[in-house]
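Lay summary. Proteins are chains of building blocks that fold into shapes, and those shapes determine what they do. In this project we predict the shape from the chain. Here is one chain we studied, written as its sequence of building blocks.
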Amino acid sequence: MHQPIHWHQWGPEAFAAAQAENKPILLDIGAVWCHWCHVMDRESYDDPTVAEILNREFIAVKVDRDERPDVDSRYQTAVAAITGQGGWPLTAFLTGEGKPFYGGTYFPPSDAHGRPSFKKILLAIADAYKERRDDVLREADGLMTALTHAEGLAGHNADFNPRVITLMVQAALNSFDAKNGGFGSAPKFPHASIIEVLLDWYARSGEDGAANVARTTLIKMSRGGVYDQIAGGFHRYSVDEYWIVPHFEKMSYDNSELLRNYVHAAQLFPDAGFADVARDIIRWVDAVLSDREHGGFYASQDADINLEDDGDYFTWTVNEARAVLTPQEFAVAQLHYDIHEVGEMHHNHEKNVLWIRADVEEISMQLSIRPDEIRKLLASAKQKMLAARLLRPTPYIDKTIYVNWNAMFVSAYLVAGRALALKDAHHFALRSLDRVLQHWTDAHQLPHVIAYSDPNAHLAANKGLLDDYVFTALACLDAYEATGDLSYFRCAREIGDAAITKFGDATSGGFFDAEPTTEQVALGALVVRRKAFQDSPTPAGNPAASILMSRLHAYTNDAKYHDKAEDTLEVFAGAVEQFGIYAGTYGRAAIWLSRPHTQVVIVGTDAAAAELERAAFATHAENLSVIRLPQADAHLLPPALAETIPNVSVKAGHSMAIVCSNFTCQPPITDSQQLTATLRSLLHT
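And here is the predicted shape, written in a compact code that computers can read:
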């Protein structure tokens, strides 16, 4: 708002102005948490000279990619077709009708590294739009054609084949960095969905290869600087292959999906400390990224305080650490966190990213101090460093509450609450879900945003997208399983049915990311229908919708859900093998569609029931569901279970577990060891 540029919101007014004034549109897509967006803001958009050119020659439109992922995804595809890459800030040049014809990401303020300055780019684009309009329009039409043949719309239909799971696991094994964990080389992003596929593969097959990839990756990430060693929670990605130096912003969606990874890994590898990482993620989210008063999860925490620093809030000089620790605490922390006179940060070589270089036993040998004393000193140092860090200026927290990201965190908190016996996480997840469901209207509409960081902000188009519906319905199913409250199941079914109606493609299968609009109403590239199946950066909407449909089928035995799950995966079956680890959510959906679903219904509220629930969570698989019901509510069941469980002899007053698979239930089990053995036997069949 403070900039000298006449910014427009994305909307009809901006497009009408561009057409009336015969000017091209400059579209700037960024995000609150985006460091290079802030850099370009200061270097270029705060510059009066740039502003004079923009205001004279262009209609300038600014979009927040978190608020409008539908706008962002289409123009990312267009710019990637021009330059071979996308990212933020996204700088796109459009015709007055919104057709892209040129673009890039960050443009420097002056000529540098063989790249022209932003001012030169602006003047060249303005000149081309005036003098070579036919060339510009041909380029724009070509890019729009490319957009219509983009991901999911290029005729990749084929029969679904469950071998895709095997191929995906093999792709993960082939790209695995055995030394450092993760996949490929720098930069390294967490690939939470493919880790879920690997964990499921190991749970079913017992193959050490898949276990090693998942386990090593999760361990290496949690020991690196990409993990906040002091407060908990993960930064967005690592700029190096070692997971040491991160991009320091922290995103809701990364932490929700990684929380799920660490909980599931803790179930399969209880000795590896994964539960501690999960608890620390929750500790950080509770303190920083959640609305404790009303329920709900915030969107992100920025990387920086201002443009002069780069993660200074999160990093430490030797003197900063010495100032808050006793000499003995510093000696231990220095070895453990690798704090030295020369650190890892290029903008300030004294700044150290904290990562775990030495374990307790190694430090004990070096300093000749008992391991238990080392642990006490580390705990004390960590507490003091966190307290000191909280006194620093805190990076901006975007308190916008997005429906899809909230639903993802609700699901993650619920699984953590149950598997790790965290009652507070369980209750906060339900409060947060209930807040979202307050916005589920009688007209069967969900919004995309339910609260803004800026109370004066207004999003003109706040209609829910496919992801909002799918992840909310999945969260409702998780809430039903965690509580036995059938109202959550009913909400899941209603929202799932609405997703089919609003976004489903009844002709070709699958789901569009947004509700259809006529060509006369749609603005710019939104006229292009899009079906996303590649995870980027969140789990993709189509395979997530397939998972939802499979889960609804498991509870209803209604064939329409199975058919929709299958036809959604068939839309992409001819192309998915090319995407490898980047289609991890498709792999998860393939597991749901091709493996028998298994439900454990635990009836009772006493200690025996709690022990059975612990036994059920002693293992993990993608399509293993655990439902906890009070004895009085044992008759309140979704349709498929209501048909099968009454045929099982259930004794009143006795806690028991009933294992059902493929719409058939086994006799009740009262012994926890027998339950664990039964589940593991089912998973290996």
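What the prediction tells us: The chain is about 50% helix and 10% strand.
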